[in-house]
Fold this protein.
Amino acid sequence: MLKPVSTHKCTNGNQFTLSALSKLTGLTGKSMNGENGNNLLRALRPEDHSIIEPYLNLVELPAGKTLYRPGDHVQTVYFPCGTAIAAYIVELPEGKGVETALIGREGAMGGIVSQGRLPSYSRCTVQTGGKFLTIRAEVLEEVKERSDSIRHLFSRYADCMMAQIFQSVACNASHNIDQRAAKWIIATYERTGSRVLRITQDQLAEMLGVGRSYITRVIARFKDDGIVQTGWRQLSVTNLEAIQSIACDCNEHVKRHFGEVLAGVYPSN
């Protein structure tokens, strides 16, 4: 039998009911909005949201937190809220990794459409820290059994995520490192709304599956052209139009597919 999760533990140890948090932060329910909530959950009909909401738990996770490693049993589904972002990274035998999908408030990580045992194929890591709504994977399965429209919504999202992964494969094979770096910067900006990206050059190199020396040269060119500035563990975009002109159009293809399958869910700034 489903057992509702109704409390949240903040970093200071205080406990709040989820319904109280919804009134304070707009993270859940009809008051959820695209800036501080999760757009995928916001797309649920009110009657469907009333089914899933009692089982959601609000947590705050730091950048760098690993949610799953390859082979881990996926027990929790995560819905990034607001500016929080996570990334799926496929680890390669030589110790390198490459990002296959960046997930913000438009989506979720975990067993969205899977059933039965859920071993993780790739590593999933929090890229930009923030608030996440979570639900146990086994509970989500029971919730989907209670509502066809919830199941269909998550199936449509799975289609969108697959489109993003397909586009990522094509992008990695077809576009140069400058285009891909600019695309990643734009994708992160769209999800956070901030021109200040909390990332190191080592992390960006891993996201793009290249060596640190490649990224160092790319960022140096961007700096020389007055497009970005660097600081301690951050990258600041000073000329958004210029970085958009360098980026490949892969993000636009993904956004277009989201618009056709899940209109209004993909972040826009």
Notes: The chain is about 40% helix and 20% strand. The radius of gyration is 19 Å. Residues 176-247 form a domain with the Arc Repressor Mutant, subunit A fold (CATH 1.10.10.10). Confidence is low (pLDDT under 50) at residues 5-17, 19-25, 29-34.
